[in-house]
Design goal:
The C terminus is likely disordered. About 15% of the residues lie in helices and about 35% in strands. It has a single domain, classed as Hotdog Thioesterase (Thiol Ester Dehydrase, Chain A, Roll). It has a six-stranded antiparallel β-sheet, with helices on one face. The chain is built from one helix and eight strands; from the N terminus they run ββββαββββ.
Amino acid sequence: MKFDKPIQQYYPEETSVCFGCGRNNPDGLHIESMWDGAVGVSHFTPKDAHLAYPGIVYGGLLASLVDCHSIGTAIAAMYTAAGYMPGDGPVITCVTGQLNISYRKPTPTGVMLVAKATPVEVSERKAIIHCDVFAGDTLVVHGEVVAVRVQPDAVVGGHQPRPDEQTTE
């Protein structure tokens, strides 16, 4: 099923604070992922503040783009696999279980980047996403993300220690 707006626009207000994709983070990157039912696509233009070297984008920013776009794509793919749209059933929330990045070419500044994320495995509990980032026609980054589904309340309010992690003073 195709989504009519970026998957991040469906995220609950209280969890939309991620530096990479949170719409409620005024200092964030505001990465957005469109889902056509098979592939997630994101467009992002790095700013001058995102430099590693003159004319070259910082690798950490590219990793954030792959991470957030892949998680958004995983969530959209899980909704599609479950057969319902966001808001029509239980909220689906994922966190990054693994992030692997391969930098293929230096990424130039001043160019709109296009990230294309494809689910290669989707289950109820996790998704594996391959993401390629292009500057024009040039593949600059390839990433693989393992997205792990968590209960929505697990990401609200920060880490809450388990009883066995409690310390006494």
